[in-house]
Specification:
The complex is a heterodimer of chains A (169) and B (333). Chain A has helices at 12-15, 38-45, 101-109, 118-128, 137-143, 154-168, and strands at 17-23, 26-32, 64-67, 70-73, 86-88. Chain A is an alpha+beta fold and 169 residues long. In chain A, strands 2-1-5-3-4 form a five-stranded mixed sheet, with helices on one face. With 333 residues, chain B is an alpha+beta fold. Among the domains of chain B are: 5-55, Uridine Diphospho-n-acetylenolpyruvylglucosamine Reductase, domain 2, CATH 3.30.43; 229-330, CO dehydrogenase flavoprotein, C-terminal domain (Enolase-like, domain 1, 2-Layer Sandwich), CATH 3.30.390.50. Helix content of chain B is 29%, strand content 20%. In chain B, strand 11 and strand 12 form a beta hairpin. The longest helix of chain B has 18 residues, at 313-330. Classes of the chains: A alpha+beta (169), B alpha+beta (333). Chain A binds chain B through residues 1-4, 7, 10-12, 15, 17, 34-35, 37, 56-58, 61, 64, 67, 70-73, 76-78, 80-81, 83, 124, 127-128, 131-132, 141-143, 145-147, and chain B through 1-6, 8, 33, 35-37, 40-41, 44, 46-47, 49, 53, 55, 57, 81, 85, 104-108, 110-111, 130-131, 137-138, 240-242.
Chain lengths: 169, 333
C-alpha cells in the first residue's frame, strides 16, 4: 500500500457517528468523525486541555486518562467506540473542592519541571492506587514506566507516588 | 488517517458477517478493532488503511474459564492486564503472566487484548514508515532493513524479502505452552495450533499468519499441564522496562528424579515468528539439568541463525538468554 499524495476531501458527515459519553461525571452527546481519538475529542471538542498530546502513538503516556476507572492512552482510543463509557481526566480528579491525594503529593514533592507530562503522570499514579503492585521502588518504577518525563523529574515523581500510596494504604 | 466506515458489532456472528460484507462490496480490507494499540497506531501512520473498521469491544469474549480437560480457555477480548493477574494463570502458567507483564506499559496492557496481541505487527522501522520501501507493507518494493537499520530484527526464519521479527512477549509464552486458537469465519469455526498459526516470510512477507481475511480469533486455549510443570519467562532488552525484547525465552519443563522429563521452549525477539526448536528441546529431554546441556540446546537452537549487518550480537545474547532461563526454571526450590 502506498500513501496517497494528498488526502482527498472526505464525506465526513456521511460516515460520522453519534456517541453518548460521560466525562468527569457529565454526559455529552457528540457527533464525531470516526477517526477522532479520545484525546482529540477531549481537547478539541470538549475543551478539556488538561490531557496532553505528546507522541500521539501510545509511547509517552502524556495522554493517560481513566476509562471506566482504568488507565489507558487516550491517543489510541477511537472516541466513536466509547458509547456509554465513562471517562475521567485530570480535570475530574479533584473532589469536593480538594485536591486528589496524588495531586497533593505531586505538589508537596515538587514532582515536575516543565509540567507537560504531569497530567498523565498523575492519572497513571491515581489509577495505580487500585492496581495490584508491590511497594518497592523497583515495582513502582515498573508500574509507572508508561509515563515518560523528558525533564527527568523521576526522583520526585517516585517520591510523590510513594507518598500517595502511603496515604491510601 | 484515511477515512473509514466504523461498524459496532454486538456479537461474533455480526462481526464476521460485517467483515464478509465489506469484502464482497468494496474489495477493500475490513479490520476488527479490539484494543487498538497496534491498529490505531498503524492507521495514524497510514500503514493500515482499512475501508471498514469493525469495533468488537462489545463482543462477549471477555471470560477466562477452566476447560473440562483441565486447561484454560481465554476469550479473545480478555485484556492483557486481566489475563496476567488471573489467579489460575499466575499459579499454573506463570510464564504467560510474566511474559504479559514484561510487555508494553500498564496503560497499553489495560487496552491490548489476547486476540489482538496474536496479530501484533513488527516494529521494523521501515514497515512503519510509508516513505520507505517494505516488502511486508508493499510487496515487491524491497527490503531496506537488509544492510540498513536492523539491530532489533530477526536472525532466525528470515528470507531475502524480509528480516522483520515478531515483537510480542505473549506469543512466545503461548508458543511454549502449546496453545490452540479458535477462529471464526463466515463458514464456521476452525481450531489451529499455535505452531501452525504463524507463517515464515519467504517470498510473501505480507502474510504473517494463516488467518484469512474476515476471520476472527475468538478464543485461545491453554492445554492442561502435568503436575509439577514449571515455567519461566526471561526477557533481555535495552531498558529495564517498557521496551521490546532483543531476546527472550519462555521455558516450560517437567522434572522428575532430578532430571528433565520434558522441555518445551520458545524464543522471542530473534525470529521472524515466535521461535520454537523441537530439535533443541530433544537435547534437553531426559538429561540432568546442567550448564553443558543448556548450552548444547542453545547451540542447536541457533545452528541456522543468520545475522544481519547490525544484529550478530543477538546470537550470543539469545544463547545466554536460553541458558539463564533454563537454569532458573530447573533450579531446585
Amino acid at each position: 500500500m502506498r500513501p496517497s499524495p494528498v488526502p482527498a476531501p472526505q464525506p465526513a458527515m456521511f460516515l460520522s457517528m453519534t456517541v453518548a459519553l460521560t466525562v468527569n461525571g457529565m454526559r455529552h452527546e457528540l457527533r464525531l468523525d470516526p477517526r477522532t481519538t479520545l484525546l482529540d475529542c477531549l481537547r478539541e471538542q470538549l475543551a478539556l486541555t488538561g490531557t496532553k498530546k505528546g507522541c500521539d502513538h501510545g509511547q509517552c503516556g502524556a495522554c493517560t486518562v481513566h476509562l471506566d476507572g482504568r488507565r489507558v492512552n487516550a491517543c489510541l482510543v477511537l472516541a466513536a467506540t466509547l458509547d456509554g463509557r465513562d471517562v475521567t481526566t485530570v480535570e475530574g480528579l479533584a473532589r469536593d473542592g480538594g485536591l486528589h491525594p496524588v495531586q497533593a503529593a505531586f505538589l508537596e514533592q515538587d514532582a515536575y519541571q516543565c509540567g507537560y507530562c504531569t497530567a498523565g503522570q498523575i492519572m497513571s499514579a491515581a489509577a495505580l492506587l487500585a492496581e495490584p503492585c508491590g511497594e518497592s521502588d523497583a515495582e513502582l518504577k515498573e508500574a509507572m514506566s508508561g509515563n515518560i518525563c523528558r525533564c527527568g523529574a523521576y526522583r520526585n515523581i517516585l517520591a510523590a507516588v510513594r507518598q500517595a500510596r502511603r496515604g491510601a494504604a | 488517517m484515511q477515512m473509514f466506515q466504523l461498524r459496532r458489532a454486538e456479537d461474533v456472528a455480526q462481526a464476521v458477517s460485517a467483515a464478509a460484507y465489506a469484502e464482497d462490496r468494496q474489495g477493500a480490507p475490513a479490520r476488527f478493532l479490539a484494543g487498538g494499540t497496534t491498529l490505531v497506531d498503524l492507521m495514524k501512520l497510514d500503514v493500515e488503511r482499512p475501508a471498514m473498521v469493525i469495533d468488537i469491544n462489545r463482543l462477549p469474549l471477555d471470560r477466562i474459564e477452566a476447560t473440562p480437560e483441565g486447561g484454560v480457555r481465554i476469550g479473545a477480548m480478555v485484556r492483557n492486564s486481566d489475563l496476567a493477574q488471573e489467579p489460575s494463570i499466575r499459579e499454573r502458567y506463570p510464564v504467560l503472566s510474566q511474559a504479559l507483564l514484561s510487555g508494553a506499559s500498564a496503560q497499553l496492557r489495560n487496552m491490548a487484548t489476547t486476540g489482538g496481541n496474536l496479530l501484533q505487527r513488527t516494529r521494523c522501522v521501515y514497515f512503519r514508515d510509508v516513505a520507505m520501501p517494505c516488502n511486508k507493507r508493499d510487496p515487491g518494493s524491497g527490503c531496506p532493513a537488509i544492510g540498513g537499520h536492523n539491530r532489533n530484527l530477526a536472525v532466525l526464519g528470515t528470507s531475502d524479502a524480509c528480516i522483520a521479527n515478531n515483537p510480542s512477549d505473549m506469543n512466545v509464552a503461548l508458543m511454549a505452552l502449546g496453545a490452540t486458537l479458535d477462529i471464526q469465519g463466515p463458514d464456521g469455526v476452525r481450531t489451529v495450533g499455535i505452531d501452525d498459526f504463524f507463517v515464515l516470510p519467504g517470498d510473501t512477507p505480507q502474510r504473517e499468519t494463516v488467518l484469512e481475511e474476515g476471520e476472527l480469533i475468538t478464543h485461545v486455549t491453554l492445554p492442561p499441564l502435568s503436575a509439577g510443570t514449571r515455567s519461566h519467562y526471561l526477557k533481555l532488552r535495552d531498558r529495564a522496562s517498557y521496551e521490546f525484547a532483543l531476546a527472550s525465552a519462555a521455558v516450560v519443563v517437567t522434572m522428575g528424579h532430578g532430571s528433565i522429563k520434558t522441555a518445551r521452549f520458545a524464543m522471542g525477539g530473534i525470529g521472524a515468528r515466535p521461535w520454537r526448536s523441537p530439535p533443541a528441546e530433544v537435547v534437553l529431554a531426559g538429561g540432568a539439568p546442567s550448564a553443558a546441556v543448556f548450552d548444547a540446546a542453545a547451540r542447536e537452537l541457533l545452528r541456522e541463525a543468520r545475522p544481519q549487518s547490525q544484529n550478530a550480537f543477538k546470537i550470543e545474547l539469545a544463547r545466554r538468554c536460553l541458558v539463564h532461563a533454563l537454569a532458573a526454571v530447573t533450579a531446585a526450590d
